[in-house]
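Supplementary Methods, section 5.1.

A reviewer requested that the exact input to the structure prediction be made available. We therefore reproduce it here, unchanged from the version used in the analyses.
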Amino acid sequence: MFTKTREKSPYFLLAMDFGYTLLAAVVIFGFVGYRLDIRFHSNPWFLLGGIFLGLAIGFNSLFKRLKRLEQRRKAEESKTKPGP
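The structure derived from this sequence is encoded token-by-token as follows.
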């Protein structure tokens, strides 16, 4: 029987989570923009603004999480590195 287990890369997990985060942000803010367009009769400006805001929030979240992941990796690397 195959008993090897593979540990998933944190970057792979981040990439999977990023897709859902980006999708949710774009859909939520796009919907809010759409509803504002209907209310104020300003097609398609609020919708476009909502989509761009969702994209900005999604990518901002990605960059923050990448920065934390890199800091954690460097801290672990410095712990395992033998001192002089």
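The mean pLDDT is 90. These observations are discussed further in the main text.
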